[in-house]
Amino acid sequence: MTVTRGEAACYRIKLREPWQSASHVITTFELITARLWTDTGQEGVGWTFTVGAGGTAIAAFLTDDLLPAAVGADPALVERTWQRLHGTVRDAAPGGLALLGLSAVDVALWDLKAQAAGEPLYRLLGGSRDRAEAYGSGINLNLSIPDLLAQFRRWKTRGFRAFKMKVGSDDPSTDLERVRAVREEIGPGALLMLDANQKWTAAEALRRIRGFEPYDPYWIEEPLPADDVAGHAWLRAQARCRIALGENLFAVAAFNEFLRRDAVDVVQPDVLRVGGITPFLKIAHLAESYGAPTAPHLVLELSGTLCCAIGHASMIEDLDGGTLGELGALAEPIRTEQGYFTPPPRPGHGVRFDWDALARWRARG
Ligand SMILES: [Mg+2]
Fold first, then answer.
1. pLDDT above 80: residue 244
2. What is the predicted pLDDT for the residue at 100?
3. How far does the centroid of ligand 1 lie from the alpha carbon of residue 266, in Å?
4. Co-location of 115 and 162 in the same domain
5. How far is the CA of 297 from the centre of ligand 1 (A)?
């Protein structure tokens, strides 16, 4: 099987309601797709995303550089192709937009490889389990407490037993009031994760975490700027709370640095940021060797498949309003049921886009 042609596009999907964290106000979800066709008539689909900026640049990078370089590749040799494509993007940018584009191509190649094998992708990648646990997650710092509690009640109705909310309000007492209200809503047994989106200094984070302790957070996510290894190591030693991070790390070596220096408990690589499935697996296996579980960032439809593949998975994130199905991008929406994701049974990753519906959002390609 040989790749004969590729095509990229960027779609700018307007959100119905803005999402707000301690460091974002998001109004547009950019979906960037990479489609590969082969001499055997197969189509592999990959994608990446941004939260509002850079999408058209990624599509141009794919069209002009990455997709032409992928033509002629044999999807069975995905590691070889990844190394070659990474060589073409490495000097343009060590992370960021270049790796987002490479992620889309890598996912399309794995899709083709699994289709050629006639297997759902999670089985080809290891097949550790048949379903993955998911948690309800909201980019919800802008919601009033009644609206926040309504969101948690919806998640409870859908069968979730674990939940994540944003923290990082300017006034610490605002955060405490919100977290207290949510803990009362979900009860003492449910898992509650708190995400600060890199808002604090180490000293401030320690003060905030002490305040959250009565509400038993399961992990604190990105308390500090994403590249502050020493700060996270210090905080982890001081605070009696798990530290989760990784959505803003790009290189396998960066994950190793956090693990080696005891600066993280739960790693959260984003498969569509780190360069695709090929490096994602290396990160997950590396983390496993340190005893750290992997809780992939976003991308429910693919993160679920990956958690069903790897040996030491935590949970996947079911972002309220942020799955591809909820965004109107899929021909066959993929939903969690009673807090679990089950991989689509068909060969490949099984994610089928609704190209006609997407056309109205098309920005480039
Ligand atoms: Mg986060």
1. yes
2. 97
3. 12
4. no
5. 7
Say whether both 98 and 131 belong to one domain: no
Tell me, in angstroms, the distance from the centre of ligand 1 to residue 10's CA: 23
Query: What spacing in Å lies between the alpha carbon of 258 and ligand 1's midpoint?
Result: 16
Q: Which residues contact 307 (CB under 8 A, 6 or more apart)?
A: 129, 132, 133, 294, 296, 313, 314, 315, 316, 341
CA of 287 to the centre of ligand 1 (A): 18
What residue spans of the chain are helical by DSSP H? Answer: 55-61, 67-70, 78-89, 96-117, 121-124, 145-157, 172-186, 202-212, 229-238, 252-260, 277-289, 300-307, 355-358
Q: Is 27 among the domain residues?
A: yes
What is d(CA 251, CA 267) in angstroms, rounded to the nearest whole number?
Answer: 13
Is 156 catalytic? The answer is no
The mean-pLDDT minimum among 16-25, 87-96, 134-143, 310-319 falls in 87-96
Query: Is residue 33 domain-shared with residue 161, that is, in the same domain?
Result: no
CA of 244 to the centre of ligand 1 (A): 9
Catalytic residue among 166, 199, 232, 349: 166
Catalytic choice (113, 164, 232, 297): 297
Whether residue 261 is found in the same domain as residue 190: yes
Number of domains comprising the chain: 2
Answer yes or no: do 275 and 145 share one domain: yes
**Domain of 278, in residue numbers:** 126-341
**Distance between Cα 62 and ligand 1 center (Å):** 27
Residues 178 and 39 in one domain: no
- Catalytic residue check, 166: yes
How far apart CA 215 and CA 194 sit, in angstroms, is 11
Q: Do residue 357 and residue 321 come from a single domain?
A: no
Between CA 310 and CA 294 the distance in angstroms is: 9
pLDDT digits (tens, 9 = 90+) for 22-51: 999 999 999 999 999 999 999 999 999 999
Please report whether residue 254 resides in a domain: yes
Q: How many CB atoms lie within 10 A of CB 45?
A: 19
Q: Are residues 150 and 70 located together in one domain of the fold? A: no
